[in-house]
Amino acid sequence: MAPNHSNENGSIGSSLHGVTAREQIFSFSVEDGPSSQAIRSDDPTAKFALPVDSEHRAKVFKPLSFAKPHMRAFHLGWISFFTCFISTFAAAPLVPVIRDNLDLTKTDIGNAGVASVSGAIFSRLAMGAVCDLLGARYGTAFSLMLSAPAVFSMSFVADAGSYLAVRFMIGFCLATFVSCQYWTSVMFTGKIIGLVNGCAGGWGDMGGGVTQLLMPMVFHVIKLTGATPFTAWRFAFFIPGFLQIIMGILVLTLGQDLPDGNLSTLQKSGQVSKDKFSKVFWFAVKNYRTWILFVLYGFSMGVELTINNVISGYFYDRFNLTLHTAGIVAASFGMANFFARPFGGYASDVAARLFGMRGRLWTLWILQTVGALFCIWLGRASSLPIAILAMMLFSVGTQAACGALFGVAPFVSRRSLGLISGLTGAGGNFGSGVTQLLFFSSSRFSTAEGLSLMGVMAVVCTIPVAFIHFPQWGSMFLRPSQHEERSKEEHYYGGEWTEEEKSLGLHEGSIKFAENSRSERGRKAVLADIPTPETGSPAHV
Amino acid sequence: MAIHKILFASLLICLLIQSSHAATKERLFSDLEKSALEVTATPSRVGEGVGVDKLSITWKVSSTATKEPEFKAIKVKLCYAPASQVDRPWRKTENELFKDKSCPHKISSWSYDPAMKAGQSFDYTLERDIPTGTYFVRAYAVDTKDHEVAFGQSTNEDKTTNLFSVQAISGRHKSLDIASVCFSVFSVVALLVFFVNEKRKAKIEQSE
């Protein structure tokens, strides 16, 4: 029987293993078990600062350490992602100045906002392949250093068209989300990858908040040196540009693709039976749950990306704050990511422990709907304290929903896991593009009305989560199937392989995953698995 | 639970603040005395290039002004004409004075005493952060409480006559452009150097 190599570097889908943060990653396949252990057991694992598993992935997460190669990769990864968020949304807090310089209309500004998130739809999908081929270091470095020229070219922008083009090109760098998660997935073992990826994702997203503080501050300092406002904002973009170049160089010099070395110097061992891309793609696209998650993420992460673009200008215009103060308020939206996203993932896990997958779905629905309701409130708030309160509650709800969604995504498919994660991520950008286009790109709605309408749309578009049904675990309103065969996890995950592939044993990884996913049945099912003693209750008390 | 009580209390406080704010701000533009001041603005250009455009502005109290005794100061402002307000809600004209955003640029202000009825005439050099657009000049007369009581503007009521246009500076600088190109090139070249170097090292190691 051919061993399952779908975890090997280079096989389709492996680029995004671990992205979803809740999957089981197996370091060796069933057949190869003893032999691969024999090969590796005499490796000098003592050279690693952290305890490692048989694939040299770290078993422990120490956020305060910078030890080579694991923790270093983590920090380089999330900081690169953070830097890209800073660059992508750097224009947003400076829009009040830029719009005067370039004589922009609301339509121009809205369209540029759409453009800033659209590029990443494609670059995120492509980044998976880049990481597979060149390794995470080059994936990250490419993203950082090839988009740095776009950041610098803000100094050339003279009208609405060039402004839009530059924001579009800068937006490509959001692909670092994929390379960052890929890098941590190869560096950290499956049991802790959830926490590691949640932290990397959440802390990276914080960049969207930090930029609202950083850019007005840089702008202010440059003005103090005597520059006119219309020059100062252009020069301010040099800071994110420098950060990108510096991070790119750090990643290339300090980072390492894999625990054992860099991709180009390591020799790839053995035969790799790569999964067919067409099959992986087909199973991802055929599964209706993928598209529901696509829409859902579009209205949690999508809403978050949109807010990063519009919230600073909203507070500046509506409440007459200074650029600086509007930036501080807007920043607190993005900064909530530090704890809100991990919290969402944690809440999903707790719900799963008690109620299984149904708990995860309900958690996702509740968090996202509550967040969206607070968004409606934010648009209607006419006084500053209430607007800030609404915004904070909205941010926690929406960001936690992002975390909770990636508690569900790993279970949708095992074979096409990477592609589904990539599609979901792209859905976030797509949702952001749609909401900005509909509500913030014309003078039809005021920004306040746009916020409320976006909240309403988010509530409506969260309803589809009720239609996600797993035969083995049920859905929000339906119980799991009582059918003998379909109520088994193996049937669901095995269904992604043809009989021919099953006879070759290619589906072994999926079966193992299915066994481990029985925890998604919740507490009752776990208890039911414990065989009741023959005697039952004692005859005599 | 304690956190719920805290949230509820802060909500109540916020609502109270909001309701207390609502009462005070209802001074309307339509309540002001129109044409109490006669204002003219004539643009002229000094020298070549941008940033040195001048406006010659005069204002004087019109003979038809009735609220003249209340005037304590005259504030002259640069205002957007309707053409520059299209699709730009941050420059919207609102009747409530505190909401109105159509006259954000302060030109100058003069403290007023009755001897100044004949008005003032002065030159104003446009600031370098004035955006491109069509403008007119408006002078507000404010009372001791700093509330507007009357106004006059250099255009008619429909804001169609005597408008002038301003071309903003671009903010671009040759030195900035050059620096930008240099750093961009550095970024791409550095990446390529690393890439080629590593590929070469890998080839050497493989052939060993």
TrEMBL record, chain A:
It is a multi-pass membrane protein. InterPro entries: MFS (IPR011701), MFS_dom (IPR020846), MFS_trans_sf (IPR036259), NO3_transporter (IPR044772). GO terms for molecular function: nitrate transmembrane transporter activity. Residues 508-541 are annotated as: Disordered. One of its GO terms (cellular component) is plasma membrane. Residues 73-467 form the Major facilitator superfamily (MFS) profile domain. GO terms for biological process: cellular response to nitrate; nitrate assimilation; nitrate transmembrane transport. It is found in: Membrane. Keywords: Membrane, Nitrate assimilation, Transmembrane, Transmembrane helix. PROSITE patterns: MFS. The chain crosses the membrane at residues 76-97, 138-158, 164-183, 195-215, 235-254, 291-315, 321-340, 361-380, 386-412, 419-439, 451-470. It comes from the Eukaryota. Belongs to the major facilitator superfamily. Nitrate/nitrite porter (TC 2.A.1.8) family. This is Major facilitator superfamily (MFS) profile domain-containing protein.
From TrEMBL, chain B:
The lineage of its organism: Eukaryota, Viridiplantae, Streptophyta, Embryophyta, Tracheophyta. It comes from Brassica campestris. Residues 1-22 form the signal peptide. GO terms for cellular component: plasma membrane. The keyword Cell membrane applies. This is High-affinity nitrate transporter. Keywords: Cell membrane, Membrane, Nitrate assimilation, Signal, Transmembrane, Transmembrane helix. Belongs to the NAR2 family. It comes from the Eukaryota. The chain crosses the membrane at residues 178-196. Involved in nitrate transport. GO terms for molecular function: nitrate transmembrane transporter activity.
